[in-house]
From TrEMBL:
NCBIfam families: Por_Secre_tail. It holds the Pfam family Por_Secre_tail. PROSITE patterns: C_TYPE_LECTIN_2. Keywords: Signal. Residues 34-187 form the C-type lectin domain. The keyword Signal applies. Residues 1-23 form the signal peptide. This is C-type lectin domain-containing protein.
């Protein structure tokens, strides 16, 4: 059973949003699915509290990452999102770029909890500074953090790094000031769009493992690009629509290993498959 940490004394003022359009322009929202859930990358800079309020208004919460698999899936999508790094910088986080996720230690310094909807109940996952420990063996992905850096501390929000900083590399977590204006990731308990779900289930790739050619079963006429991504989130090879011939792509030049094959469709939908290159 998850440990619950009451946050009854936590009062964070944030704007109230009554609809999707009011807290995020649809043109600034990228959606993807993972393990039966939908996620949104919101390319609009907000404080942690405002980002959490927007997430709730959209029917979700700031992402609460519970496994390395989920962390990797989110990180891959962030690296593919063509984010403007200069628009989502935390100066107190080594000057690196970040997105907000749903962790904080606002109620008690060093007691890091998942509370992506900023309500009165949260699940603690970490206790202490960089030399601390995970609570009940829960997943964490800190750099050499947290450290509550600064003359007055106040680094109470959890950022997922998009670029390197002196104490960590992109993809790692850092504690940064809640007032930073950052992009953010929203998690939903379920699939937002039936269209996305249909794309994921209707599009199949074979053979798997593959040695030279990978074939796509499904409607490829709306495919705009296919990107092969390694397990640390690097885009290794990109095929444009014109390079997808006879519903197939040639992966002979890829080194043997595990890849994520992301198929992006016109209209913004995408489907990702795990594939092994022999």
């Amino acid at each position: 059973m998850k440990k619950k940490t009451p946050l009854l004394l936590l009062f964070i003022m944030a704007p109230l949003f009554t609809g999707f359009a009011q807290c995020a322009n649809p043109n600034n929202v990228l959606t993807f699915t993972h393990n039966g859930k939908s996620y949104e990358i919101i390319k609009e800079a907000k404080t942690w509290a405002d980002a959490a309020a927007c997430a709730v208004a959209r029917g979700g919460y700031l992402a609460e990452i519970g496994t390395a698999y989920e962390q990797n899936a989110i990180n891959i999508q962030l690296q593919l999102a063509n984010l403007t790094m200069a628009a989502t910088v935390a100066p107190d986080g080594g000057g690196a770029s970040y997105v907000w996720i749903g962790g904080n230690d606002m109620a008690s310094e060093g007691a890091w909890v998942w509370n992506g909807n900023n309500d009165a109940v949260a699940n603690q996952f970490w206790q202490g500074t960089a030399s601390g420990q995970a609570v009940d063996g829960r997943y964490t992905n800190w750099g050499n953090e947290p450290d509550n850096w600064g003359p007055n501390g106040g680094q109470d929000g959890l950022g997922l790094a998009l670029t390197n900083w002196p104490l960590g590399t992109k993809g790692k977590w850092n504690d940064v000031n809640l007032s930073n204006q950052l992009f953010f990731v929203v998690e939903h308990n379920g699939i937002l769009s039936t269209k996305d779900q249909e794309l994921t289930t209707a599009t199949m790739v074979y053979p798997n493992p593959a040695e030279d050619m990978v074939y796509i079963q499904g409607n490829t006429s709306a495919l705009s690009t296919i990107t092969f991504i390694n397990t640390i989130g690097q885009a290794i090879k990109v095929f444009s629509h014109s390079q997808i011939t006879n519903n197939s792509v040639n992966i002979t030049t890829l080194l043997p290993g595990v890849y994520f094959m992301q198929m992006d469709f016109e209209g913004g939908e995408s489907s990702t498959k795990k594939i092994i290159k022999k």
